[in-house]
Amino acid sequence: MLTHRPFWPALALIFAGAVCLAQNREGGGFRAAFPDDSLYLAGRHVYERHCLVCHGERGDGRGEMAKEMFPKPRPFKDGVFKYSTTPAGKLPTNDDLRRVIRQGISGTSMPVFDKLSDGEVRAVIEYVKAFSPRWRKPENYAPPLEVPEPPGWFDDETVLRQRAAKGGEMFAAACASCHGDKGEGNGPAAASLKDAWEQPAPPADLRRGGLRNGTEHRDLQRVMMKGIDGTPMAAFQEALTEEQRWELVAFIQQLRREHEAERGRR
Predict the structure, then answer these.
(1) 185 in any annotated domain
(2) Out of 7-16, 175-184, 227-236, least confident range
(3) Is the pLDDT of residue 209 over 90?
(4) Quick one: what percent of the chain has pLDDT higher than 70?
(5) Are 136 and 179 members of one domain?
(6) Domain of residue 220, residue span
(7) Of 68, 80, 177, 197, which is the most exposed, with the fewest CB atoms less than 10 Å away?
(8) What is the mean pLDDT of residues 229-256?
(9) Residue 214: which CATH number?
(10) pLDDT band for position 7 (50/70/90)?
């Protein structure tokens, strides 16, 4: 039997709701997604059936199956999430959590939960929030990053190759030490990298399949803007201009196309 309970009493919920309304952005409609404790019990039921065996009774990522897994299940008690659309250090949106539940995470043991009802997904999202007090603090919320649309030169093959070549130069200077010269994830620093939970954090092989934060141009741009929370992947929003980041995107997408073409030839 689980003994976990919401962190704050009912009075705090009233306060949180008031703060939530105060957090609306003028004209933007942003509203902090404070925990909805009315869904706590329903969410616990879903969590016990589908999540506890990996993420653990206390949300510490130490479920019965966790010791055999790599990478390890996310410990929800820390309130740190890698795969989100919000700025670095901010909590994910409900849509971010819903996407992970519905689509799983490529290259991990996180499966696709496409049989859960929308109500079950909503409830378990609210239950996950009960594990960390970070969800009760307004300063931990922010709207999704505004990621720009890719520039028009992505549609011009000649210009695209030129831009990708520039991106390759930046990749060699800023990324190859971890990701390797060809994006294989085998740079000289790769073996020593660890995440916020002191687990090995090998860099992604950027050439292959589904990247965990998405493979579209804007997905890659978002990762460069914000980094990946809890990992050594740094944010480049200040270090590189938007155009330079797009050139890096062009180079990475070129690596992926070349890798797929090579696989096809084999």
Answers:
(1) yes
(2) 7-16
(3) no
(4) 89
(5) no
(6) 152-265
(7) 68
(8) 97
(9) 1.10.760.10
(10) very low
Q: In 10 A of CB 221, how many CB atoms?
A: 22
Same domain, yes or no: 82 and 160? no
Domain count, the chain: 2
Cα separation, 266 vs 255, whole angstroms: 17
Average of pLDDT values for 96-116? 95
How far from the centroid of its chain's Cα atoms is residue 254's Cα?
A: 23
Same domain, 36 and 66: yes
Structure tokens at 223: 């990762």
Burial environment of residue 222 by CB neighbours within 10 A (0 to 12, 13 to 18, 19 or more): buried
Is-contact 229 81, C-beta < 8 A? yes
> Are residues 204 and 252 located together in one domain of the fold?
yes
**Nearest residue to 209 (alpha-carbon basis) of 183, 189, 228:** 183
Contact by Cβ (8 Å): 119, 125: no
Task: Inform me whether the pLDDT recorded for 179 exceeds 50.
Answer: yes
> Average pLDDT, whole number, for the chain?
90
Instruction: Give alpha helix (H) positions in the chain.
Output: 10-22, 40-50, 52-55, 94-103, 118-129, 157-174, 176-179, 217-226, 242-265
Residue 81 CA to residue 78 CA, distance in Å, equals 9
DSSP, collapsed to helix, strand or coil, labels residue 194 as: strand
* Amino acid at position 154, single letter: F
Mutual orientation of helices 118-129 and 40-50 as an angle, nearest 10°?
A: 100
Collect all residues with Cβ–Cβ distance below 8 Å to 262 and sequence separation of at least 6.
none
Token readout for 176 is 């190859």
- For residues 183 and 260, the answer to whether their CB atoms sit within 8 Å is no
